[in-house]
Amino acid sequence: MSSKFFFICYGVGILSTIGIGPIFILTFNRAATYGFLRGAATAFGSSLADAVLFGLGFAGFLSLVGEASGLHLVLDLVGGVMLILMGAYYFKRSISFKRVMIEARENIILIIIKSFLITIFNPGAILYFGYMSIQVSEGLRNGTIFARSIGIFMVFLGTLTCFILLSFFASRMKNAITGKRLRSISRLTGVLLMIVGIYFLYDFVIGLERYGLL
Q1: Any idea which of 61-75, 107-121, 127-141, 163-177 has the lowest mean pLDDT?
Q2: Dihedral of the CA atoms 172, 175, 178, 181 (nearest 10)?
Q3: Listed residue (138, 141, 118, 120) closest to 129, CA to CA
Q4: Rounded to a whole number, what is the distance in angstroms from the first to the last CA of the chain?
Q5: Largest Cα–Cα distance of the chain, in whole Å?
Q6: Is the pLDDT of residue 46 over 90?
């Protein structure tokens, strides 16, 4: 297995961060509001989920998800509801500097788990890594388990690199953000998350109609 395969896997991770998805929004929000560490924890959890999904794609599991219409609908429903509820929370909460100081002490492990679950149940992420794992599978032929593991790690590293940079630049804004701007960022985050969630639910309804369940 050549080094080209590892660079391709790294690129797969980088490409997964393109576009303003739920994790992009949350990473920016937490870094700008609570500091670099909280944004980095969000990035780590999502990157870990990306690596898991890529590994499952190699194992052929994600192709089964694509063929199982019922499972895809469940993912749309769970992901959509999860994002809408989280978006409503961010939109409605009353944020203040005192609250920021309290929430800045939120357990890092809990932040990692939250971002991991958001990503692992994201239908878009599942389809993306299912597709990309098929595209790069040629590089896996006759590859050792160690080499395959390095490929999966490179995906993790590619995703993490981009979101860590996002977290760093967003955290530089923290000292310049006023209470009014904090509320605006929180509401914008809520709106964007709800939009993505509504899209997933729309896809869920379309899926029900497609399979004659409505």
Answers
A1: 61-75
A2: 10
A3: 120
A4: 48
A5: 57
A6: yes
Residue 123's contacts (CB-CB under 8 Å, 6 or more residues apart) are: 72, 75, 76, 79, 200, 203
Question: Whose structure tokens read 């399979």?
Answer: 211
Return all residues near 138 (Cβ < 8 A) that are at least 6 apart: none
User: Dihedral angle at the C-alpha atoms of 142, 148, 150, 152, nearest 10 degrees?
Assistant: 150
Q: How much is the pLDDT for 6?
A: 85
Q: Say what percent of the chain tops pLDDT 90.
A: 19
Q: How far apart are CA 132 and CA 150, in angstroms?
A: 16
Query: 169: exposed, middle or buried (C-beta count within 10 Å: 0-12, 13-18, 19+)?
Result: middle
Instruction: List the one residue out of 115, 106, 85, 136 whose CA is nearest residue 34.
Output: 106
Q: Say if residues 118 and 23 touch (Cβ distance below 8 Å).
A: yes
Q: What pLDDT, in 10s, does the model give residues 94-120?
A: 554 445 444 556 688 999 998 999 888
User: SS3 of 193, please?
Assistant: helix
**Whole-structure pTM over 0.90, yes or no?**
no
